[in-house]
Amino acid sequence: MAVLYCAGPGCQRMLSVSVIPGGNPVARADPEHFAVDFLVCTKCRKGFCDRCLPPESAFHKLRSCPECGADLATRAIPHHR
Length: 81
Ligand SMILES: [Zn+2]
Ligand SMILES: [Zn+2]
Fold this sequence. Notes:
Layout: E1 3-5, E2 14-16, H1 25-29, E3 34-35, E4 38-41, E5 47-49, H2 58-62, E6 72-74
Parallel strand pairs: 2-3
Antiparallel strand pairs: 1-2, 4-5, 4-6
The structure holds zinc ion (2 copies).
One zinc ion binds next to loops.
C-alpha cells in the first residue's frame, strides 16, 4: 500500500495514497493512524492530513502549502501510467 507521512508538526499519521475509490479499506478502518482526506503540495510533495490542515484553515482555503506556499492539490499524487 502506498503511503505518505503527514508533514504536519508532531503528526504521525500516514496518508493513504491508494488509488482505490473511496480510500483504502485498511486506512478507513484505522483513522487514528491513516488519513483518507488530505492535501498534497504540488511542489515539495509534502502531504497534510485533514487534522493538520482542516477545511476551515487558511492554508486549506487558499490551497497554499504551509511549507513552501505552492499550490496544494487534493490527493494529488499523479499516477504515472
Ligand atoms: Zn510545498
Ligand atoms: Zn497530520
